[in-house]
Amino acid sequence: MSQLESATPQQPQQMLKRQVCYTCNFPTRTCICKALPSEPLAPLFQRCRILVLQHPHELRRKNRSLPLVDLCLFGKSNGEKNETNSTSQSTSLDKTNQDFVMRTVVGRRFGDQCDEAVLRLLRDPNEVVVAVFPHPQALDLEKGIRLADERCGLVNDNSESTSNNATDTRQRHKKITLVFLDASWKHAKEMDKSNSEIGKWPENLIRVQMTPSETISNNTNDASTDTKISSKTFVQRRFQIRAPPSPDHLSTAECLAWVASYVERNPVIYEKITKVLDYIVDIWKGFSKDEKSNGGWDSMTQKKRKITQNKVNGD
Known about the structure:
Layout: H1 3-7, E1 48-54, H2 56-59, H3 66-74, H4 82-88, E2 102-106, H5 116-123, E3 128-132, E4 139-140, H6 141-152, H7 165-172, E5 176-182, H8 185-197, E6 206-209, H9 212-219, H10 252-264, H11 267-287, H12 289-293, H13 297-304
Parallel strand pairs: 1-2, 1-5, 3-5, 3-6, 4-6
Helix pairs in contact: 3-10, 10-11
């Protein structure tokens, strides 16, 4: 043994690791358990399921928002392994049962290390699949979801005859599959283009995009806003950790929460998930006070505001 080696203290391996909260998998000093819903949100998903295509680079980011959704949907006990948790929650996706709440597939396109069950779902012409991402052919959220509801038999349910009640019941229980791309904006555009070029998107795919700033202003005087996201709930550039370029650039978590709330007609989904987002941003700001005084996160956000505001969605 060299003198250098003998002079180096041999520390136990456990002392080299940060202490991590067992329930949320965050470092104990940034534990977010107190912001998580008291009950998992997964039972609220009755009309839709979530399918996320996550870029491999996004999986390695520490400031990604998707694991927060995972914790909100499935509860504290499922936060131990953020990278694989969404997949583990979808064990019911098999040859005979495609009913799941959220499924995350890591890859640049569907087909990259993607199990056959997901591909079957995307290929099935009877499934209703909605991709939430900007596109020249994308409908606004309201029109797109209305079209999806029609395909699921969720429109004008009261007018259905009782003679074919069994068939109608099966049709009404068909879920909308909401697809999100979890990546940087550059990578997300590449992923959408790649899936289109190799024919991985369903032929009857419904594309939607959203402009939250316009939606909120249009709903301000709407008498039915009790089932929608209110102007008081929506916060521009909420997930400042990723410095969104415009009010209509949402993190994956907020975009997912917004659309799911709209489809389920339940604003609680959006409110509970964004509560966790706000909490973790507040923690981050607390650690960034010194940087802020030296032109840190705040000046970065201000700089980003100069970027042209496009109608886009996602992280």
